[in-house]
Design goal:
Layout: E1 12-14, E2 20-28, E3 37-49, E4 59-65, E5 67-72, E6 77-82, E7 86-89, E8 95-98, E9 105-112, E10 129-131
Antiparallel strand pairs: 1-2, 1-10, 2-3, 3-9, 4-7, 4-9, 5-6, 5-8
Bound molecules: zinc ion.
Length: about 140
């Protein structure tokens, strides 16, 4: 068994175009020898947002702290999501997390390990995440 705390994991700035005030901690991923699911802890600062984007894999999200405004493609609009709530975002569905509150937003996001944003296996394009200076 592996046990890990958020404070033990490096925070990486999300560098994807459209991201603002977003950092990610890869809590468990393929570098740990995990075969299927990666777990990531995101922090969005007040006024920050993830890019509005879609991809060919799903997200399973749990809001851990704070409040998000989440773009929901099924209603073509935003809906609030609060700490304790779980969201399932199917593959290829547009989504975005915005923090319009005055407190940090934290959420867990599960993805297949092949998309866990650790050292890319073969993709040499611009990484979506970069180490945060000083962390
Ligand atoms: Zn996504």
């Amino acid at each position: 068994m592996l046990v890990r705390r958020p404070e033990e994991v490096e925070d990486q700035a999300m560098t994807m175009p459209g991201a603002q005030g977003v950092t990610m901690k890869l809590m468990v991923g393929r570098d740990d020898g995990v075969p299927n699911f990666a777990m990531r802890l995101f922090t969005v600062q007040p006024g920050g947002q993830t890019p509005k984007h879609a991809h060919n894999y799903e997200h399973e999200v749990m809001i851990v702290e704070g409040q998000a405004q989440v773009f929901d493609a099924t209603i073509d609009s935003e809906r609030p999501a609060n700490a304790g709530e779980v969201l399932y975002i199917p593959a290829n569905q547009l989504h975005q997390f915005r923090n319009t509150s005055k407190a940090p937003l934290r959420f867990m996001c599960m993805v297949p390990t092949s998309y866990d944003c650790s050292a890319p296996e073969s993709d040499t394009s611009t990484p979506e995440f970069a180490p945060t200076p000083g962390s």
